[in-house]
Amino acid sequence: MFDRPQGGERAILVQLALPGVDAVKALAEFEELAISAQAEVVGCVTGTRATPDAKYYIGLGKAEEVRELVDAHKAELVLVNHELSPSQERNLERFFQCRVVGRSGLILDIFAQRARTFEGKLQVELAQLEHLSTRLIRGWTHLERQKGGIGLRGPGETQLETDRRLLRERIKAIHKRLEKVRRSRDQNRRARRKAAMPTVSLVGYTNAGKSTLFNILTGDNIYVADQLFATLDPTMRKMELPGSSSAILADTVGFIRDLPHQLVEAFRATLEETQEADLLLHVIDISDSHWRDNVAAVKKVLAEIDVSDIPMILVFNKIDQQEGWQPRLDQQEEVCKVWLSAKTGEGIELLQEAIATTLHGAVIKEDIFVSVSEARLRAQLYELEAVIAEQQDDEGGWHLTVKLTQAQREALFRHRQKNVPN
Length: 422
Fold this sequence. Notes:
The protein is α/β, with parallel strands linked by helices and 422 residues long. The chain has helices spanning 23-36, 60-73, 86-96, 103-114, 118-132, 159-194, 210-218, 261-266, 268-275, 291-304, 348-360, 375-383, 406-419, and strands at 10-17, 40-48, 77-80, 99-101, 199-204, 235-241, 245-251, 279-285, 312-317, 328-330, 336-339, 363-370, 387-392, 398-405. The strands form three sheets. Strands 6-7-5-8-9-11-10 form a seven-stranded mixed beta sheet, sandwiched between helices. The chain has a four-stranded parallel beta sheet with strand order 2-1-3-4, sandwiched between helices. A three-stranded antiparallel beta sheet has the order 12-14-13. Helix 4 packs antiparallel against helix 5, helix 5 runs antiparallel to helix 6 (159-194) and helix 6 (159-194) runs parallel beside helix 9 (268-275).
């Protein structure tokens, strides 16, 4: 087999219009993925087939068309927007005399570039190794039995068998390390439960605006970019909510159509933050004409990690890109919906109100009277930062305007009943 090149930035994209696939949208998204992986797209080949070809997936005619483009542009890489079998990858590489990478391989490469934390790097490496384990034969030229001179001959094992054994050992070692990460996350979650701090997890299609929303809700400044998978490593911060309540907000990796199964498995430690959340914010890019398909793709991944019983708020983001759209909150239906713009901040207060209501009950604004004997209650209200206005009467009592969640109000009023003298 040919010597595989080490480079590979000049790329040809290949997309087939198979039944049930929106070829135009799929190709546009795949080109974004290629650019995110820092590939230089120099050509594109599209076609239509009822079923994939067993040998080349795209068929011999399209394969010849691709090879002509590879030769004309001196391309070092062919990116195919489909899941190729190991044998199909090998056949195409022999035919093109350059590297061939399928959709899963491309997404894994982007994840490898974006991982920053120790945990993120481990998860990406695990996904890559499990993907590679089925394709280990590719590119090798030394698969014969290991040989030697007199006294060194023997059945031995092939280089391929050696590599597979080393691969299994490395995968096992990574699983052990990730298990330690899971235990550490469990301890953190138990600590948050003891502090009665609920967790809210952002989920959604990649590039829907989750990180921008995270920043405006928490006052943080995590990395934001108009590209696929800008966020890979999970981030958690405290956010303040109406009614003097608070919660932990988790920003997680974005989902995508046909997300490789290896990634879902490898990122299970991270996705547990979503599984253990008290509330999910499903962020949707309403400016994308295919947002319904994106929602379906996210629901598919959420079904895989079994989070169907967790309350969810649908957040329709980027209304600033839709002419005439205004922020609004709809709590009449079974699922709460909020329309907003994370970029401009329009509608953020509606989302905060919806989160507080879902987690702690409705936020109630009311006027109350606190007598001199209830000074402790007044102090508690100030500790919660619930007091909006105050006026003292002639007898030393206080007329207060307060804003509390239903849960806080019940707790304080129980305390008030116990302490009010007969």
